[in-house]
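Hi C.,

You asked whether I'd gotten around to modeling the 367-residue construct. I have! Everything is below, sequence then structure, no commentary in between.
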Amino acid sequence: MKKINKLYELRIFIKRTRKKLKRKQKHTNNNYRFMGQKVSKIITIPPYLDLEKHLEKTLDFIKNLGEEVRENESIVIDHSYMIQISQEALLLLTSEIERSIKKKDSSLKGNKKFMPKNKDIKELLNKIGYWKYFNIKSQKNKSSHKGKYYLDIKSDTKANPMYVGELIEFFEQIISFEDNIRDKFNDALFEAVANVVEHAYIENQKIFYIEGKWWLTASLDFSNNIVSFTIFDQGIGIFKSLGSPNRKKPLSDGLKNIVNMIKSKDFGKIPKLKEYPKITLLKKLINESEKLSRHETIGRGNGFKSFKRFINEVESGEMLILTDNISYKVISGETKILEQPLNGTLISWTIKVDNNSNKKIHLKKEI
């Protein structure tokens, strides 16, 4: 009887060992199974993605994700470990996924196993239209943050005023503008979209890109009383755009000198330059942007300057410019030089509002 038991145990051991070896071999060969199909790579989104505490790691992950998607025959993106993602990082993630799957002429697939487990992430991705953007059925989730509102992710290759109208309508559900402030805000928003279409893709790039493509979203956080708007493109970036021979309006001499210095990488040509040249160039661009415009209409061609004025007028806010290897906060002057450059340009505007009806922009009663 004991011999029979030992023989049985030995057979079970051999069977389990074979299964383990098979699983190990599959893992080594990068062969997974998903919805009945072979998958060569599972890409796991890290727990934290944002442009504040995890800026370098976020940009590095976005770059690697794009490369993995484009290089592997079939991939799955695992969202299950996500804990926190900022509005800006989410827009970068969305754009990189779309660009990469379009290059492969494939699509993003959803499955419960790879959906977020964190309830706040579930809600964010549902509210901001992330799943809808990729035509994936979203998870059912009870709302846990009633004070947060998001505009669905928008994207196009045209500067259609319709999108600005949708943005204004979204904001006016929850905040009130004085008439002249509303007009200035409208001009600044439209300028942001128009600048992408006119300048971001004026040269060909070595990497695959979708001509003229931009992505935007917006939000209001009642817990902090902050209105936020973010737009991103995967174009050549501000610095290459300024130095491009395809520009239809010549630069001022001051800007041209810095652009040429950056292109030649000879940073000693202007002795009085105290800062990193690209940061100096951004600052000058904001102050001289009206001179760069090929548009005579008021409010066109000076997007950076017009929104800085808007923020100054409402007395509270910030504008983040992230392009190439530079992160620059316009109001505070905070700058970072990045190891991992960004492919494209991201501009994020935040405005602090309150319940004081005497202010030029203020909160309506919470809905």
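If it helps when you're writing up: The two ends are 75 Å apart (CA to CA).

Thanks,
B.
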